[in-house]
Amino acid sequence: MFIAPLQFHFGTTFAITFYRICGCLLVICMAYSFFNPVSQVVTTKFDKSYLNFAFRKKHITSVMSAKSRLGNHIFELAATLGISKSIGRAPVFYIQNLYYMKMLKETNETIPGLIDQFKIRYEEFPRNNRITTFNTRCCIYQDPDILKNIDDDLIILNGHYYQSPKYFPEMRKILRSYLKTPENEYRNLPKSTESNFINCVHVRRGDFARYDFHVSEPAFIKKALTYIEKQVAIQGKHVNTVLFGDDLQFMRQLIGNATELLTKAVCAFLL
Ligand SMILES: *[C@@H]1O[C@H](CO)[C@@H](O)[C@H](O)[C@H]1NC(C)=O
Ligand SMILES: *[C@@H]1O[C@H](CO)[C@@H](O)[C@H](O)[C@H]1NC(C)=O
Predict the structure, then answer these.
(1) What is the pLDDT, as a whole number, of residue 28?
(2) TM segments (predicted)?
(3) Does this model's pTM top 0.90?
């Protein structure tokens, strides 16, 4: 097994070609409307997104933790979207200050299709709007059904982080399709082939380790890696594992001496 610890942020490494496909569709639509006089008449100056916002009367948003990092942003947006779907409301993202602007920019660069699901408002939450207590503790799931009884036009949840995938059930495929191809090709990372299975493992420690909170033990991670390796071997493939994380020392301990040289080379390049 070859393991290369990398110390940069998790979400930035994902890839899709979704935007290219949309680009092609857009060109086809533009060409169609140019050559078709009827569609030119239909193309008026309505701002459709505004209409959606105005006529779909019930909305939902959440405070979120705009100061935090990309992984949190993706979870918060995916969860707010999942909750909005499950209770039949339209999701709104309020750019309340520069942190929210930064959050929008980062998620728009990494997973543009996700932020596109939200109506964007460049203002603070409406004054006098009630704030609803929801998901105030880390790493628990609270059933959004309790929000169905609320009649407010806009529900503002005071929750943040939303560290449970249960908030966006059965959305794996669609969320992945929102990811954008990164410009950096990460040439020094192994690539999947017919015979090579690339196993990417995100080891999140940081403040979790400092506060003795929800971190995986080395023994657990090693057993999980061995399990995956065995499953992949059954398919006749070889496993290359890439560790991502914020604790290089911990990841080094995890992999022992065998790959130390490679570790240094890869990290020196990427850091
Ligand atoms: C997201 O990025 C695209 C491409 O840079 C840009 O055209 C679009 O306006 C951005 N969306 C928002 C909501 O800022
Ligand atoms: C790593 O190398 C050091 C020094 O050569 C050795 O003492 C240690 O046992 C090795 N650790 C592993 C996990 O192989």
Answers:
(1) 43
(2) 12-35
(3) no
